[in-house]
Design a protein that fits this description.
The chain has 360 residues and is α+β, with helices and mostly antiparallel strands. It is 36% helix and 23% strand. The protein has three domains: 112 residues, Carbamate kinase; 77 residues, Carbamate kinase; 135 residues, VC0802-like (2-Layer Sandwich), CATH 3.30.2130.10. It starts with a helix and ends in a 14-residue tail after the last helix.
């Protein structure tokens, strides 16, 4: 174990020295650097497990069959990985597999973005056809962030789409990307606390749930004077192709203009795509905003708008999300926590939790 750790540390040292000498940090080099934490961790853990008498083998990236595309910092695992994973872990008594990163076809390390380790876990479970258990430092998914809403309740069950929406709109318990493999394979995900695994949230193809979530530090970018609808389609297509908005939180089209809500870190990239549409295009940016998401089929834009308006919270926009089960309100940053509390209370989430058995 110690020899391998020394080798990894030497590799890291050389990589850092190279970036220093070149005075350049490319996306590929950055992904390589940040992968070392996970690589060191699995070899350390495997060493302790071996000392305890377990036949543990540390595996990562292609050694575990995890083949990705080349989108550095936010890569996706290719379907070609499925047979590779089965092949690589066959016959290994206790495979200890690193999350968070893989390798592309050119042999370069790629990280998987937010929730990358959960993503690897659900992919492995989907390939093996078994339940995936994700251990967290919280009990499970809640009806709101308990740091904001004191009486937020644990959601016992939710379906895949609700879990995806929670991840898309700010939850750090359930990551959007991680739900995909489980949903495709039809396997359940159990999110539970490593301090008390007796409770948790079961994600499967059943169980309606409702929640209020939020993303802070977003901006609304309005592209005005666009020539026609085909131009708007071109913009959306380019945003999707380049993954220029990660995630593309919300896009609303009205006549010859489009409003895009995006993390502040993506303003420049979205604006550059807008500028390609011609000199006549006018770009307006409204910052210091938060997106509040009311997730649940029964919530409507009028309900959300009236609740906020009644309490004198001004919303720049209140619109249905693309999934059909989420309504999004864009508010000033200073109103974000109050908006979450207001909607959680006004929409009746405090008294009870919806379980699948409630609809039987």
């Amino acid at each position: 174990m110690e020899k391998r750790l020394d080798q990894l540390l030497e590799e890291l040292r050389n990589t850092l020295l190279g970036a220093t000498y070149l005075r350049e940090l490319t996306p590929a080099t950055l992904d390589r650097i940040v992968s070392y934490g996970e690589r060191l961790a699995i070899h350390t853990a495997a060493g302790y497990m071996t000392e305890a008498g377990l036949d543990s083998v540390p595996l990562s990236d292609v050694d575990a069959g995890i083949l990705t595309d080349s989108n550095f910092s936010n890569a996706c695992i290719l379907d070609e990985s499925h047979p590779l994973i089965r092949e690589k872990i066959a016959g290994t008594h206790v495979p200890l597999i690193a999350g968070f990163f893989g390798r592309d076809k050119a042999g370069r390390i790629t990280t998987l973005g937010r929730g990358g380790s959960d993503y690897v876990a659900t992919l492995l479970a989907s390939v093996l056809g078994c339940k995936c258990v994700l251990f967290k430092d919280v009990k499970g998914a809640m009806t709101a962030d308990p740091k904001i809403v004191e009486d937020a309740k644990l959601i016992a069950e939710m379906d895949y789409l609700t879990a995806i929406e929670l991840g898309r709109y700010g939850s750090r318990v359930v990551f959007e990307k991680a739900v995909g493999p489980a949903m495709k394979a039809g396997i359940p995900i159990q999110v539970t606390s490593f301090l008390d695994p007796s409770e948790g949230t079961l994600i499967s193809n059943r169980g309606e749930a409702e929640a209020i979530s939020a993303i802070r530090n977003v901006s609304m970018i309005r592209l005005l004077r666009l020539p026609n609808l085909s131009t708007i389609a071109s913009i959306l297509g380019e945003l999707a192709a380049e993954r220029a908005v990660d995630p593309l939180i919300l896009a609303e089209v009205f006549r010859n203009e489009i409003s895009i809500v995006t993390p502040d870190t993506q303003i420049e990239r979205v604006s550059q795509i807008g500028k390609k549409m011609g000199e006549e295009t006018l770009i307006k940016v409204e910052g210091n905003l938060a997106l509040i998401a009311a997730i649940g089929k029964r919530f409507t834009a009028s309900q959300v708008h009236e609740t906020l308006q009644r309490e004198e919270v001004e919303a720049s926009a209140v619109v249905p999300g693309p999934s059909g089960i989420t309504t999004c309100a864009i508010v000033n940053m200073q109103d974000s926590e109050r908006s979450v509390k207001l909607l959680h209370d006004a929409l009746g989430l405090s008294p009870r939790i919806l379980r699948s058995s409630d609809h039987a």
